[in-house]
Amino acid sequence: MENVVIIGAGAAGYTAAIYCARANLEPLVIEGMQPGGQLTTTTEVENYPGFPEGIDGTKMMEKFRAQAERFGAKFLQYDAVAKADFSQKPYKLEMMAGDPIEAKTVIIATGATAKYLGLESEQKFMGRGVSACATCDGAFYKDVPVVVVGGGDTACEEATFLTRFASKVTLVHRRDELRASKIMAERTVKNEKIEMAWNSVIEEIVGDDSGVTGVKIRNVKTDEITEIPASGYFSAIGHKPNTEPFDQLEKDEVGYLIADGVKTKFEGVYAAGDVSDAVYRQAITAAGTGCAAALEAERYLEAQEG
């Protein structure tokens, strides 16, 4: 039986592993199918303290992992949790491939997955002009045009944020009015640096070896196809939290885990990072909650022993 099982291997999971390992808890990290999480889809991270020159997202996560490993964290690769049972102790995790795992405490750090349209060209230019995080990548698009797809509050927020850097932001929406809250929609439409492409859908991301060079859109009423010059394409149609195995935990209407800080309704079970954060979704906030979850797990285990 494990003292601490950490499900997920992004900024939150690896940070939790560092803290638990330094407390001699020998945590087991279930890395899943995408070790490193969302940061592995980002080429350059410039807003994480301690890296003044920036750092490749994958390399950054490799450093996190190496630090956790140095202190004695264990790792389970190429397997994921199929179902978690928190109804009795020790907690039981059914795995996709391997044997079930029992744990005294569990830290859930499975993150959230950005939604994309599913175009082949989105995948082709991922990290080379295609992004789902304006806060993360907006600064790379100074004085160049970009395209944002979406129609809700997220799309309006991303488009507005990008006006700080881009020469022009085209917001593509399939309808003739935004789904965003009224004040957010009005603010977006009135912004001089944002051009609305109403009644339109994305057909294809185009580019070359240097990355994205344009976006083809189709007007749903006329079927006319137009290519918009752009150096960046931002998907702003939402995120899907990776919470399917955790049916016993409370979730909001989107599926994010509901926690009091990092504490779920089951003692010794914690949620950290984007799996319970629909607001900030940054590496540093994920790392912070990973730290908090580890400290809570350590205190819980100490109290049980006492």
TrEMBL record:
It catalyses: [thioredoxin]-dithiol + NADP(+) = [thioredoxin]-disulfide + NADPH + H(+). Its EC number is 1.8.1.9. Pfam families: Pyr_redox_2. Its cofactor is FAD. Keywords: Disulfide bond, FAD, Flavoprotein, NADP, Oxidoreductase, Redox-active center. Residues 3-290 form the FAD/NAD(P)-binding domain. GO terms for molecular function: thioredoxin-disulfide reductase (NADPH) activity. Binds 1 FAD per subunit. Belongs to the class-II pyridine nucleotide-disulfide oxidoreductase family. Homodimer. This is Thioredoxin reductase. It comes from Pontiella agarivorans.
